[in-house]
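Q: I'm writing up a methods section and want to include an example of the input and output format. Could you take the sequence below and give the corresponding predicted C-alpha cells, formatted cleanly so I can copy it straight into the document?
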Amino acid sequence: MITRSEILVRGIVQGVGFRPFVYSQASRRQLRGSVRNNTAGVLIEVEGTHGEIEKFVSDLRLNAPPLSTIESVECNHNLTPADYSDFVILESAHHAQTGEQFVPISADVSTCDDCLKELFDPDDRRYQYPFINCTNCGPRFTIIEDIPYDRARTTMREFEMCAECRAEYEDPLNRRFHAEPTGCTACGPQLYLLESNEGAKRQGPLDVVSRPRTLLLKGAILAIKGIGGFHLACDALNAEAVERLRQRKYREDKPFALMTASVGLIREHCVVSREEEELLLSERRPIVLLERRPDCKISSAVAPRVNSLGFMLPYSPLHHLLLKDLNRPLVMTSGNVSDEPICFDDSQAITRLGSIADRFLLHDRRIHMRTDDSVVRVHDNREMILRRSRGYAPAPIRTGFRFIRPVLACGAELKNTFCLARDNYAFVSHHIGDLENLETMRSFTEGIEHFKRLFHLEPATVAYDLHPDYLSSKYALSLDEGHTKIGVQHHHAHIASCMADNQIEGEVIGVAMDGLGFGTDGRMWGGEFFVADFVEAERIAHLAYIPMPGGARAIRETWRMATVYLQHAFGDDFVNLDLPFVKDLEERCWPALRSMVATRTNSPETSSMGRLFDAVSSLLGVRSIVNYEGQAAIELEAIAARDIADAYEFKIGPENTIEARQVIRGAVEDLLNGNSAAVVSARFHGAVARLIVAMAQKIREERKLNRIVLSGGVFQNMLLLRQTTRMLRTTGFNVSTHTRVPTNDGGISLGQASIANARIKSGRTS
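A: Here is the clean output for your methods example:
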C-alpha cells in the first residue's frame, strides 16, 4: 500500500550536502516526493510503501553526510498520497516565519580531499583556483547574510555562475549541487596582489600565488585576505622579518600563530601527540598549542619566553597554494593593529594595515562576518578550547536543559563572546575580543543583530555582568524595558559555564580563579570557592583581600602587586631584604605606593589568584610589566621546574579566608638561599594545586558534595591544571573542566545564559 510521510530534519543540515544525500537515498529506494530547505531545517515529503519509508528514515539517521549534525527527525506518517511522479529537490521556502523556527548554521569548513585533488590536477578546470569548494567544504558562516542558506542570501550572489558551474550546481548527483560558494576561474571570485607602494594589481592564480611566495621568502610582510578576515604573514624562520612585524604591529611579546603545510613539518619544531594531530587535521583546522622542541629552529621572536607554539594547517585553497612545497612555517597572525578586531573589509585593511604590510594579497569575495582563528590545546586527552571562533562558531552548544524563554547573554569585557539561547541550544558567538574600542564594540553589536536574524530569535531575557563599567553590561542595560534583565556575578557565570559545558545540573563545588571579576560586595574577586548550582552561588572561601595600588595600573605593572604582597608578608621591613626585586625598586616608588595603600587611594581590594601569580612572577624577576593579558603568569609557568615534589603552603584562616603570607615568605627564603626562579615557580604552582585540593576536601566533608568544576583564566595554566586534576581525582573527586567553551572569559556568556534561565524558572529575576 502506498502512503505519504512528511519528515522534518532539524540540526546542521543546510549547506552540508544534505538535500542531495536525501535525493540519492530516496532514488535508491524508488521513493517519490520532494526535499527543500526551510527556516526550521530540511523538509521532506516522500511516498511509497510504509516499509521503504521506514528504511529511508533509518538511512537519514545512520548515513548522514559527515558535516551534518542531526538533532531530531520528526515524522508525520500515513498521509494521503499526492501521486508524485518522481523525487525532486525544490527551492528553499521563503514564506514569512513565526519566529519559532530556526536552523543551525554550519561553521566554515576546511578544504576537503576531493577539492585538494582537483586543485593540484593540471587537467582539472579548477586547477590552482584559490576558491575551489564543494558541499563538503568552504566558507559558510562568514558569507551568510540570512537564512535559508541559499546563494541569494550570501555574499556569493555577486557572482553569476558560468554554464559549467550552473550545470554542476543544479545536478543533484554532483558534489557541488547547491554548493553556494561554488565558482571557477571564469565566473567566481578572483585573487589579486596589490603592490601597495605602486597601487598596481597583479591578477591570475599562477602569477598571484608565486609572487607572494617569493616576497615572503625574501623577508616581506604580507596582508592576506582569508575566509574570515586578514592575516599578517611572514617567514617564521626569518628573525628580522618577525621582529619587524612585531614593531610595526605594536605587539611587543604576545605569541604569533604559525601555519605550515603538514604535520610532518610541525613535528620538526614541536612535540605532537595523537590527539593533537587529530585536532590539527580536523575539518575545523584550529590553532593548536604544542610543546616546543628543544632543537626548534623557529625564531624566538615568534613566541618570546614561552615553551609552546601555536600551529595550524592550511584550511583554504589559497593557503594550500601558498604553502605547497614550502618546507618552512609562516607566521600567520591576525590582521589587526594592537587591540583592534581583525580586519575583514578591503578598504579598511588597506588603511589600517598599510603601515604594517609590504603587499596585500586580496580577493573580491566579500566577507560578511569577521571570524578570527580558533585556538585549542589538549588536556586529559580531550580538546580544550581557548578561543572559539572559525570552524566552531556558530555551531550550537547542546545543553542538558531547556531554555524556557529566548535569552541574550552579553558576556564579559575581555575575550568577549555573546550567547543567544533557545530550546536546548546555546549559540555562543565567535570570538569578539576585548571591548575596549569603538570598532570592537561595533563588532559586538552587529554580531548580536546577525545572530538574532539567523536564528529567528528575539530575546525576552538579557543577562549581563555585574561590573558597572563593562561595555557589554552597559549595552544590556541600555536595551528597552521589554526585556527581563538579570545581572550575574562574574565567577558564578564561570562555574555555570563549566556546568553547562559538561551538562551537569544540581550543586557542585565550584573553583573560579582568574584575573578580576566584580564581586557582590563591590570588591574585585578572583580566587574563589563556591557551592553552586545554576540559580545560586554561595561563596565558601576566597583569597584574603589585598590592595591593588593604582587600580588598573597594577594589572600592567605587576611589580606593584609584588610590593604589596611583600609588605603583607614582612611589613615595611621588606625593603631591607637582600633581593634583586627590592634593590630594583626605586626608593621614591615605595613611599608613594605605601601612602596610596594606607589611605586606600585608588587601591581597590582584590582576592584575585591571577594577581598573586603576577606578584610571584615579578618577585622572581620574570615579568614586572606585562604587554598582554596573562603574560606574567604564562612566563612564570614556562620557567617552572618539572621535577619538584614539594610546595609552599597557604593558610586557611577564620571564615575560610586564605592567606598567602606563608607562600610569599617561603618564596623569599628560597631566593635568599640561592634557589632558582624555576624551583620557586614549581613550588608556587604546587602550593596552589594543594590549596584547591585541601579546600575541596574541607567543603566535601561539610557539604557532602563530590562533584567539582574548575573554571577561570588561571586554569589555562596547564602545569597547574594537570597537577590539580590529578590530585583531585586521586582523592576521589569527580572533576569537570572545560572542553566545548573556553575556561577564560570567552565562556562567560554561556554561564550567564544558563543562570538567567534557571532564575526565570525559579521565579527569581534579581
